[in-house]
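Q: Predict the bound structure with zinc ion.
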Amino acid sequence: MSMVTQGTERSRWLIKGARPLGGTPANILIDGTAIVVVEPAGRGGAGQAADRSVTVVDADGLIALPGLVDLHAHLREPGREDAETVASGTAAAALGGYTAIHAMANTEPVADTAGVVEQIWRLGREAGNCDVRPVGAVTAGLAGSALAELGAMADSAARVRVFSDDGHCVADATLMRRALEYVKAFDGVIAQHAQEPRLTAGAQVNEGEISARLGLTGWPAVAEEAIVARDCLLAAHVGSAVHVCHMSTAGSVEIIRWAKSKGWQVTAEVTPHHLLLTDELAIGYDPVFKVNPPLRTADDAAALRAALADGTIDCVATDHAPHPAESKETEWSQASFGMTGLETALRVVHEAMVSTGLMGWNEVADRMSVRPAAIGRIGALAAGLGELRHGCEIAPGQPANLVLYDPEPMTPVDPAAHASRSRNTPFAGMKLPGQVIATFLRGRPTVSDGRLAR
Ligand SMILES: [Zn+2]
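A: Predicted complex:
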């Protein structure tokens, strides 16, 4: 295990009185990039605290979670730096408690070659706020007609394992089959944006009572569910791994439950906004609530929450989708789809899942760190990654990726305070619990006292 941090001197931190996974208060000693001691608070720690080379963090009342991992964020660089950059998006991530995020491929140019994914990976390293794992496009130019250079992206320095045409569905079943077959060779996974294009032409909001009332073109649940079912069957047929992005309907949950009961390599994510918000918010025609897939009914949201709680849905992924004001502050039908999410995800999950009694902090750590890391092939069991692993236990010998979270405050979300370059959060002004106090990336604070460190 390496004990040497980047820079001149190795840093040591004693986090006193934090509650790992919301449990009993403990002292956590970090030396260099790793956790070296975790012991009950009150016992020990004094010796280390007296050592002046150790920085003491008073974490009384704070919950310690493993650094969060996002499988689904849009960082917009290269190409749309007016909306976000790798630096601003990863700053938002760190403030949200994330230590690793996956950057979606729909940049300009598209991340469909080794060159582009290496550029994004390198920008992430330079920014230093969290690890950036580029997602490679499944098809060249996201055009849906020919496979991209999946092998070259996997072999590149960015070591891509997750591939997605997100924003677009890989609608062609033959291409989807070939992509699933191809990634088996290097234990990759295809993350599908499940949207049958022919069933969603011009769609604006969930198809149902609200779309009828508003006179906007409806987006039927079946457009998602048909692709989810097809891709579960394809993954089973070729013995490969499919991950379903941003599940939004009760029917999708039933299909995933069935596919998992068969033992197929199927995983799924849900966004914070689909857990907490419903299509009734579209009634005011405010495009901040316009998103792909659309906000669904209260019954769908309840099914998604239950499925996340029982583990049918593996993880929470933000689908952080920053847009400049001119793309969102316009009429509904003209506005872009998407919402920011990195800086509010943990608080929204707290509100939707923990405050409701559906999950404890142990489950939050599992669904927001352990499982997404495993799906991204950077988890505790990932071979050859050493200290670059995420979603590990808070235990001696593990990489020191941690978030310290204060569950007590109830404050309104203030987009003006966000590090993201964009302000399109649907939670603006909403009172939510909690605050990220500190984030540690391999023993180095990226956030301290609730602000970006440095
Ligand atoms: Zn998507």
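A: Residues 102 and 133 are 5 Å apart (CA to CA).
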